[in-house]
C-alpha cells in the first residue's frame, strides 16, 4: 500500500468551501535521467490523480514528468452532502493507490 | 518627524527577528528560508518528510530479526520514550562504549536486541525510523551529553571544520562561520546548525541524513568524501551538535 497523507475537514457546513490536501510518496522518475550505469532510468510517474465526492468527480489532474517527487496537491470543493471523499492515483508500472476520508456536512 | 514612526517600526521588526533567533546570533536554517518553505515545513500535511514519519511509525511497531522483537517491545510508545533523544545524539552507546549517531544507534539496536541485519545508510527504512524518532524531539533544545570520549570527538570535529580541503581549498568555517546569510550562487548560506535532521531537501527530492548533507558539502569543496562508516562524520556531527547546543530541534525539516 502506498504511503498517503490526506487532509480534509471531518465536518463542514452545507455550501462551505473546504480545502483538501493530498500528499503521496512517489519517486516521479522523469525518464530523462541516466543512472549510475549510464543508462536512462525508465520513466516512472503518476499519470493521473482524481478525487470523487460520493462517487461524483470533483477534481482531476494529469501529471507530467516535470512534477517533483512526492507530489502534493491542494484544491477546494463546495461541501454539498455527507459521505466519503475518495482519492485515486494511477501511473506507470501499474501504480495504483486509493484513499478515502469521511466528511459530515450539516 | 516623518522618520520617527518608520524608525519605531524598524526597531519592532529588528526585535521580532531577534526573538526568533537565539539571542546570541545563532540562526537555524529555518530562519534563512523563504516564507513558502517555512509554511511547507510547519504544515504536517504538506511536509513530505511526514510520509517518512508515517512509514517510520509502522516500522517502529513491526517485529524484525530472528529475535522477533519490534522497537516498541522495548521502548513502548515513542512519543514518550523518544522525547528529546535525537537532541542528544551522537552519544556513547552503553553496549560498545563507542560513540554512535542516531542512525548508528538504530542499527546497534537491530544487531543487539532484534538480531536483524543492519539497515543500509540512506535507505528509506533507516531514514523513516530515524525521522520518526527525531520528530519526538521537535521543540526540544539540542543537548549533547557531557562525556570525555565525546569531548575528544568534538575536538577532532572542530579541527576538521576548520581544515581547508578539496580543490577549492575551503573549510566548513569559511562558509558557515565567515559568510553565513550571504549568497552562494542563488542559495543562502546557513550557519550550519543541524537542528532539523533528517531533512527533506527539495534538491534531493527525498529525505536525507546529516551525513548525506556533510558528504554533499565535501563534494562541493571538490574533495573526496570519506567512506560512509568513517569516524570523520561522527566527529563533525558531534562538533556541530555541540555548536548548536540549546537551539530548538525542528526535525523533520524542509530545506531547499
Give a quick rundown of the structure.
Chain A has 106 residues and is mainly beta. Chain A is built from no helices and eight strands.
Describe the overall structure.
The complex is a heterodimer of chains A (106) and B (256). Chain A has 106 residues and is an all-beta fold. Chain A has strands spanning 4-7, 11-12, 17-24, 46-53, 56-62, 72-78, 83-91, 95-105. Helix content of chain B is 45%, strand content 7%. Chain B contains eleven helices and seven strands. In chain B, the strands form three sheets. A three-stranded mixed β-sheet of chain B has the order 6-5-7. In chain B, helix 3 (49-60) packs across helix 7. The chains are: A mainly beta (106), B mainly alpha (256). Chains A and B meet through strand 1 and strand 3 of A and helix 3 of B.
Give the tags.
heterodimer; A: 106 residues; mainly beta; Immunoglobulin-like; 5-stranded mixed β-sheet; 3-stranded antiparallel β-sheet; B: 256 residues; mainly alpha; Cytochrome Bc1 Complex, Chain D, domain 2; 3-stranded mixed β-sheet; two-stranded antiparallel ribbon; 11 helices; 45% helix; globular; disordered N terminus
Amino acid at each position: 500500500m502506498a504511503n498517503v497523507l490526506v487532509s480534509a475537514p471531518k465536518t463542514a457546513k452545507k455550501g462551505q468551501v473546504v480545502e483538501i490536501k493530498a500528499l503521496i510518496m512517489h519517486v516521479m522518475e522523469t525518464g530523462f535521467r541516466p543512472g549510475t550505469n549510464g543508462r536512462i532510468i525508465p520513466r516512472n510517474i503518476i499519470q493521473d490523480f482524481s478525487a470523487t465526492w460520493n462517487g461524483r468527480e470533483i477534481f482531476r489532474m494529469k501529471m507530467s514528468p516535470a512534477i517533483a517527487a512526492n507530489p502534493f496537491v491542494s484544491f477546494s470543493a463546495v461541501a454539498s452532502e455527507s459521505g466519503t471523499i475518495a482519492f485515486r492515483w494511477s501511473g506507470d508500472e501499474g501504480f495504483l493507490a486509493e484513499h478515502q476520508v469521511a466528511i459530515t456536512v450539516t | 518627524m516623518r522618520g520617527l514612526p518608520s524608525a519605531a517600526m524598524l526597531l519592532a521588526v529588528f526585535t521580532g527577528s531577534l526573538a526568533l533567533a537565539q539571542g546570541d546570533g545563532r540562526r537555524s536554517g529555518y530562519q534563512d528560508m523563504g516564507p513558502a518553505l517555512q509554511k511547507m515545513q510547519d504544515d504536517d500535511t504538506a511536509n513530505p518528510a511526514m510520509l517518512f514519519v508515517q512509514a517510520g511509525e509502522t516500522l517502529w511497531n513491526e517485529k524484525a530479526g530472528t529475535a522477533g522483537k519490534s522497537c516498541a517491545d522495548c521502548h513502548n510508545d515513542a512519543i514518550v520514550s523518544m522525547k528529546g533523544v535525537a537532541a542528544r545524539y551522537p552519544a556513547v552507546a552503553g553496549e560498545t562504549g563507542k560513540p554512535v549517531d542516531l542512525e548508528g544507534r538504530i542499527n546497534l539496536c537491530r544487531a543487539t536486541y532484534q538480531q536483524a541485519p543492519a539497515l543500509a545508510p540512506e535507505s528509506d527504512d533507516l531514514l523513516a525510523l530515524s525521522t520518526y524518532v527525531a520528530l519526538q524531539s521537535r521543540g526540544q533544545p539540542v543537548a549533547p551529553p557531557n562525556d570525555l570520549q565525546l569531548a575528544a570527538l568534538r575536538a577532532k570535529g572542530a579541527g576538521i571544520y576548520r581544515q581547508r580541503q578539496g580543490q577549492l581549498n575551503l573549510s566548513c568555517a569559511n562558509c558557515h562561520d565567515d559568510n553565513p546569510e550571504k549568497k552562494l550562487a542563488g542559495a543562502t548560506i546557513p550557519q550550519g546548525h543541524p537542528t532539523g535532521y533528517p531533512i527533506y531537501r527539495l534538491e534531493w527530492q527525498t529525505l536525507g541524513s546529516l551525513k548525506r548533507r556533510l558528504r554533499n558539502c565535501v563534494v562541493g569543496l571538490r574533495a573526496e568524501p570519506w567512506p560512509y562508516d568513517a569516524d570523520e562524520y561522527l566527529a563533525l556531527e558531534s562538533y556541530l551538535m555541540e555548536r548548536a547546543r540549546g537551539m530548538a530541534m525542528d526535525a523533520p525539516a524542509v530545506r531547499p
